[in-house]
Write a sequence for this structure.
């Protein structure tokens, strides 16, 4: 067991803290999510650690509950994009032929448009609910997972043990889940952190634009939007959720960097 | 002349791009038309009367089959007719014209500043690889990658516009402003866009240079006793141009996304803000038109990147 570097420890601790506060939001938040408890934009005090927001709700409680929404949506979207992307990517690599062509060209097409633009186009006609946001984000992001897992699986699919499994007469499902998946896991795990950050930034951006999580439900991008008018008067309330987004992203990045370094040194490098 | 391999490659790339654009237009159209949500219902809301729904469906041509509507839409766009907005009944092309210009103005200046800065910082980081200037630049880029555009935007607005009063917090532009006044008005959005695309371009420049630095001819140059800065600029950089150009173009294409958010943050009257407004209002024709234009710019820049790297490859210059 190699020693875990300090930066990775810090990242793990901070990420764990974010997830714990998201899970136990009800227990640790001092006030309710949409409870109006004070004046507009009160400064920080012992009663309201981070002050109050644009309509007098406790900002700390908003941020804790907002973290729950943001982290929930981002986690679900990441799980969806990984399941969808890796299964399709492995399938394309294992079966090859027209299945591979069809899936790969479809992914090329989806990636020819920036995800944000495509998401906006879809959200202009679909009802904006949490499930819809998770679906849209998960499907759009699965294209990147598809490319990575297909690239990794193409290398594995030509190895002798896969050939042996084929000759034994194993089905496609066995080959994908029992032969390829275990060997493709480490580069995929390293990618997991990056996709999660991307999902956090994406849902925050959508909510900030008013097209993501809908009020009164709190989420970090939405809290920035709710408090942005305050900035002009020198009220920094909008910067607090902005900073939490950044801290979460940096913590996950530190962990992902460490995992990436570990897996590349173990595997003897995957690209420089 | 047409048999020249470079021309054939370039022509192939452009043809492929046009094909892709056609497919993308179908995708955007399908995204708004074929999904289970009913457009007329979505516009009018749940409380709409059946007559109102029927009228709107007829007005939108929703009674025709989807492929006929698609070709009508495409035909209109090819003739410069982007349709009319549902919300105010205005011609979309007219409303878009000035906003498109504003967006291009913003993106242009962001690119003019970001590209040379990124390349110079990348060269500096490669020159001092592993030492403090490199680590400092890497640290700052890690931070900017972890921040969404709107966060960078509000941090800049809070300190530079509200606390220190250097720039206006809201980017108002109107007719009759000189270029200097305009640039002052959009200084903050430019700054934010530069920061957002700088990190990636710089990291890739650094990586491309360090890659070339391992070649034998660089070692020769070192053994000749050339100064490190000279080696990087004269010997390493020319061979790193192709990957650098590619990354630069990808990031210019990424500006397309950045611009949407930054325009909303600074209330800049560009195409991004127009798009976001009309997504919220569920104004489908406007969303389709804006989406297609953004996608076209994005694809266009990607084609340009490929064409430039084809041209930058000296092996293709002289037909065998």
């Amino acid at each position: 067991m190699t020693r875990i570097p300090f930066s990775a420890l810090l990242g793990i601790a901070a990420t764990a803290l974010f997830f714990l506060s998201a899970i136990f939001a009800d227990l640790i938040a001092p006030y309710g999510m949409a409870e109006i408890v004070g004046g507009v934009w009160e400064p920080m005090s012992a009663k309201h650690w981070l002050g109050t927001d644009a309509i007098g709700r406790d900002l700390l409680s908003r941020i804790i509950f907002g973290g729950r929404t943001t982290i929930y949506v981002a986690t679900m979207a990441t799980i969806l994009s990984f399941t969808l992307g890796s299964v399709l990517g492995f399938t394309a690599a294992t079966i090859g032929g027209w299945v591979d062509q069809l899936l790969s060209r479809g992914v090329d097409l989806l990636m020819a448009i920036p995800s944000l633009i495509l998401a906006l186009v879809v959200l202009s006609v679909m009802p904006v609910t949490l499930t819809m946001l998770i679906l849209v984000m998960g499907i759009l992001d699965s294209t990147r997972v598809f490319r990575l897992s297909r690239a990794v699986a193409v290398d594995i699919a030509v190895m002798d043990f896969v050939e042996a499994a084929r000759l034994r007469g194993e089905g496609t499902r066995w080959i994908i889940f029992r032969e390829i998946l275990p060997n493709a896991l480490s580069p995929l795990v390293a990618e997991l952190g990056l996709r999660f950050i991307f999902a956090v930034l994406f849902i925050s951006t959508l909510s900030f634009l008013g097209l993501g999580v809908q009020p009164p439900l709190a989420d970090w991008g939405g809290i920035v939007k709710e408090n942005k008018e305050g900035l002009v008067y020198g009220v920094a309330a909008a910067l607090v959720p902005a900073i939490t987004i950044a801290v979460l992203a940096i913590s996950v990045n530190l962990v992902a960097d460490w995992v990436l370094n570990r897996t590349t040194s173990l595997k003897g490098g995957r690209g420089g | 002349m047409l048999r020249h391999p470079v021309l054939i490659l370039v022509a192939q790339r452009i043809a492929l791009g046009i094909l892709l654009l056609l497919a993308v237009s179908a995708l955007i159209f399908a995204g708004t038309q074929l999904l289970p949500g009913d457009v007329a219902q979505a516009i009018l809301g749940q409380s709409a009367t059946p007559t109102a729904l029927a009228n709107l469906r007829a007005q939108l041509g929703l009674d025709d089959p989807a492929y006929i509507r698609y070709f009508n839409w495409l035909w209109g766009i090819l003739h410069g007719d982007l349709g009319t907005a549902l919300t105010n009944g205005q011609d979309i092309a007219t409303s878009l014209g000035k906003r498109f210009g504003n967006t291009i103005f913003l993106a242009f200046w962001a690119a003019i500043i970001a590209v040379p800065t990124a390349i110079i910082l990348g060269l500096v980081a490669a020159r001092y690889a592993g030492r403090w200037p490199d680590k400092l630049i890497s640290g700052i880029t890690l931070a900017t990658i972890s921040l969404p555009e709107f966060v960078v935007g509000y941090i800049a607005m809070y300190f530079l516009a509200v606390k220190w009063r250097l720039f206006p917090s809201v980017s108002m532009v109107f007719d009759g402003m000189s270029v200097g006044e305009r640039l002052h008005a959009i200084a903050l959005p430019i700054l934010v866009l530069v920061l957002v695309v700088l990190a990636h371009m710089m990291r890739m420049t650094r990586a491309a240079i360090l890659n070339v630095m391992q070649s034998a001819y660089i070692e020769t140059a070192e053994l000749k006793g050339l100064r490190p800065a000279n080696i990087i600029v004269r010997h390493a950089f020319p061979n790193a141009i192709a990957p650098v150009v590619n990354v630069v173009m990808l990031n210019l294409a990424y500006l397309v996304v950045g611009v949407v958010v930054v325009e909303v943050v600074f209330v800049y009257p560009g195409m991004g803000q127009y798009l976001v407004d009309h997504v919220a209002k569920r104004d489908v024709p406007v969303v389709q038109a804006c989406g297609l234009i953004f996608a076209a710019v994005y694809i266009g820049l990607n084609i340009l990147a490929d064409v430039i790297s084809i041209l930058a490859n000296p092996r293709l210059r002289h037909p065998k």
Confidence is low (pLDDT under 50) at residues 266-272 of chain A.
